[in-house]
Amino acid sequence: MSSHTAQTELKFLGKLILDADLTCDTGLHIGAGKGSLEIGGADNPVVKDAFGRPYVPGSSLRGKLRSLLEQAAGLSPSEMVFLSKRKGQEVRIHQSDRPDDEICLLFGRNPGRMERVSGEVMEGVAATPARLTVCDAPLDTESITPQMRENLDDELTEVKSENAVDRLTSQANPRTLERVPAGARFKMRMILDILCEEDKELAAKLAEGIRLLEDDTLGGGGSRGNGRVRISGIRVAWRARSYYAEGTPEKELLSGGDSASLLALVRSADFAAQLS
């Protein structure tokens, strides 16, 4: 847990900017929903921008990081609340009122009445601003090489055919899944607001989430081979308050690194001192 207390005062110190390449090691499917079906298209299309190019929504990446960090922390059901309780579509997330709760500090928390998964109803009294912002990650179209395009079903995506087999009748139920192909690269940006000295500790929690993601999956169908990603080319820069108020230059802390070098940076003894 962090060193935040109920007496910690928030005062904007600066922003930690993390840019990186997110590369697909296997096909990636982040669904667009059934509303975008086209005649002759795949049953499950991927989300695309206004120019028809696939991208990774910041909400998908941020939600996956939060889920992985919650699992790694082994959080108890008593600190899980229902975000949505519609039948068949329950969504449970972690939330607590503890001032040193790193997950709530990183991703924010809202005050108000929330129903716990187990135990009494939670009456949250403290609102915590989210420190982490995750931007939509656009596709680097140059990562889709001419050789790849020759074998794709669409200009930028492939269609994976799958079969669900009935266990009693052996009847096949075919379905198609649109995916961004392996080798595609997205430009990822995360921004960590440092609102007090204690917030500098949260960078290590973010690095942990990124390392967990590399050994997990992103998007749908992860257990069926989709969504293996790799984070590389990490650049970390510190923009102090004076960067915005006085135009002082940013301080580059890491360039061209991987998740291991990112973790080493944020866990180094002098990391907090570098954010001055």
Short description:
The protein is of the alpha+beta class and 276 residues long. The chain has helices at 58-73, 102-107, 146-150, 202-214, 241-245, 259-266, 271-274, and strands at 14-24, 55-56, 80-84, 91-94, 112-114, 122-124, 132-134, 137-138, 158-165, 172-179, 185-194, 229-240, 251-257.
Order of SSEs, N→C? EEHEEHEEEEHEEEHEHEHH
Q: Any idea how many domains?
A: 1
Mean pLDDT score:
90
Tell me what portion of residues adopts beta-strand conformation. Answer: 25-35%
Largest sheet entry: 5 strands, antiparallel
* Low-pLDDT segments: none
List the main descriptive attributes of the protein structure presented here.
single chain, 276 residues, alpha+beta, 7 helices, 13 strands
Please characterize this protein's 3D structure:
With 276 residues, this protein is of the alpha+beta class. It has one domain (14-274). It has 7 helices and 13 strands. It has helices at 58-73, 102-107, 146-150, 202-214, 241-245, 259-266, 271-274; strands spanning 14-24, 55-56, 80-84, 91-94, 112-114, 122-124, 132-134, 137-138, 158-165, 172-179, 185-194, 229-240, 251-257. The chain has a 5-stranded antiparallel β-sheet with strand order 7-11-1-12-13. A two-stranded antiparallel sheet has the order 2-8. A two-stranded antiparallel ribbon has the order 3-4. Helix 1 (58-73) crosses helix 4 and helix 4 runs antiparallel to helix 6 (259-266). It is globular. It starts with 13 loop residues before the first strand and ends with a helix. The model has no long low-confidence stretch (mean pLDDT 90).
